[in-house]
UniProtKB/TrEMBL annotation:
A Pfam entry, by short name: GST_C_2
Classification via PANTHER family: GLUTATHIONE S-TRANSFERASE OMEGA, PTHR43968
Protein's UniProt name: GST N-terminal domain-containing protein
Domain GST N-terminal: 1-80
PROSITE patterns linked: GST_NTER
Amino acid sequence: MTLRHSPTSPYVRKVVVAAAERGLADRLTFQATNPWDPADDLPGDNPLGKVPALKLADGTVLFDSPVIVRYLDTLHGHAPLFPHDGDRGWWAERTHALADGILDAAVTRLIENVRRPKELYWADWDARQKAKIERALDALALDVDRLAGDPPDIAAIAAACALGYLDFRFQAEDWRASRPDLAQWYAAFADRRSMQETVPKG
Ligand SMILES: N[C@@H](CCC(=O)N[C@@H](CS)C(=O)NCC(=O)O)C(=O)O
């Protein structure tokens, strides 16, 4: 399987961490891809022009990251990344969505602050995204006890990748101060080999 990959994408990181946590790391090969390069052939694999995209041996291309992680879950015999049992399963799905929502808002903020021409900066839009992130972090912090578990499920992996992305792109904004339990959980999770091997660079 070939993963179209960018070293700074938190959605890619989530897929790579999920694969590593279920013993699938050796099954992945990587194709470096810059989704912002108009000359890149990524749209031929993913019409949305986004990474991650996973190319299978038969030519099928899977996207987006939740679909790829679901596919990975069919390839191993360990505890499922997406828990099967009722309440726990729905909670994990919701927490995965919450974490991806943090990423969506954070990536939107990054574009607004870094890529968008300065004269077009829309402060209210930026503030709206920031508020989403703050509320979602509060919700994660309330449920921090449920993030525990070894091996981690998709909720914990997605939450950790979201927090790691905030550290990577928004170091100046301290999400830890008002959420010490979440900070403590993340400090331990970030030590896992799967996380250490995927620290974003760039
Ligand atoms: N919902 C998608 C989001 C993927 C995404 O937004 N990837 C970014 C990189 S972090 C990208 O490729 N952006 C290029 C673009 O939006 O044109 C997923 O979960 O895979």
